[in-house]
Amino acid sequence: MIKNLPVRIILRITFIINCIFKFSYFPKSWKTAVVVPIYKQGKNAQIPDSYRPISLLSSLSKLAETVILHRLEAETENKLPFQFGFRKGLSTTEQLIRMTEHIREGFINRASTAAVFIDIAKAFDRVWIDGLIYKMHKLEIPRQLILLIQSYLKGRNFTIRVEKESSTLGIILS
Question: Residue limits of the Reverse transcriptase domain (predicted)?
């Protein structure tokens, strides 16, 4: 969609996104999500759990998010060698192979191996923002990028839309 815009508009959007990085500020109006419940086929339509919420954001917000993500990925690429989830070209399969090799070496060397596996339900809905910011500082992510991500994560809100009706604005707490 954006690729089809006139060059002058693309240049203005580029300028705006560069300003977002320069000032480490994510526009407030871009942080409002319209949540639309999508029915899960075969479920009881009277039960709220039978719907999956989809958050709709503006195209500019999604574009800015993508640019932020690429910059964050570039910063963390070599800083998280054992992080396999949500990274391009890596998966839980590679992590499993790595662990299997570690266990095999332990057997050969007669060493013990311990492992802890955690699966946190709705983990992204429960992110402790201040803890995440702290971790980014510990990873030595550039300060401006941390401030921008903090600006993006704080002060978000949403409205729920069903057909033509919308709820009042709600605040996203985490």
Answer: 19-174
Take residue 146 and report the two structure tokens written for it: 């941390």
| pLDDT tens string 58-115 | 999 999 999 999 999 999 988 887 777 777 777 778 888 988 999 999 999 999 888 8
Nearest-angstrom CA–CA distance, 148 and 159: 23
Whole-number Å distance between alpha carbons of 33 and 156 = 8
Instruction: Convert 89-102 to b/e letters by CB count within 10 Å (16 or more is b).
Output: eeeeeeeeeeeeee
Identify residue 66 by its one-letter amino acid code.
T
- Has this prediction a pTM greater than 0.85? no
| Residue whose structure tokens are 């429960």 | 126
SS3 readout for 73-139: HHHHCCCCCCCCCCCCCCCHHHHHHHHHHHHHHHHHCCCCCCCCCCCCCCHHHHCCHHHHHHHHHHC
Mean pLDDT of the chain: 91
- Strands 165-166 and 170-171: what pairing? unpaired
- Please tell me the distance from the alpha carbon of residue 72 to that of residue 55, in angstroms, as a whole number: 22
